[in-house]
Amino acid sequence: MTRPTHVRIDREQGFMEIEWADGTRGRCTLRELRMACPCALCVKQRETQQETGFPPLYPPQAFQLSHAELVGNYAINLIWADGHSQGIYQWEYLRSLCQPIPETEAAAGTPNESV
Ligand SMILES: [Zn+2]
Questions:
Q1: Residue 43's domain is classified under what CATH number?
Q2: Residues by chain with Cβ below 5 Å of ion ligand 1
């Protein structure tokens, strides 16, 4: 079963980083997450956009995360600064959505006082 051991949200840089139980890590931007919101409303909205070809209109707050809550042990609920809170992101979904971070870059994340 796909489960994270650690979830880190960087609001300033605007991304979420997930460390999975198998030791791999993934990262997505908050913008990507909001654009992929799995709630019924957003799914419907994206379908309509595909039909009409009009790009979605989001206020800037739509890509700012207000807070995040775990849902049982299978998902995380992201609550956005514009008040949108219906998105329940299952781990499986996040795993497919977030780009894996290459090992080399992950290792480079450890500070090594070389400045
Ligand atoms: Zn949504």
A1: 3.30.2020.30
A2: 37, 39, 42, 86-87
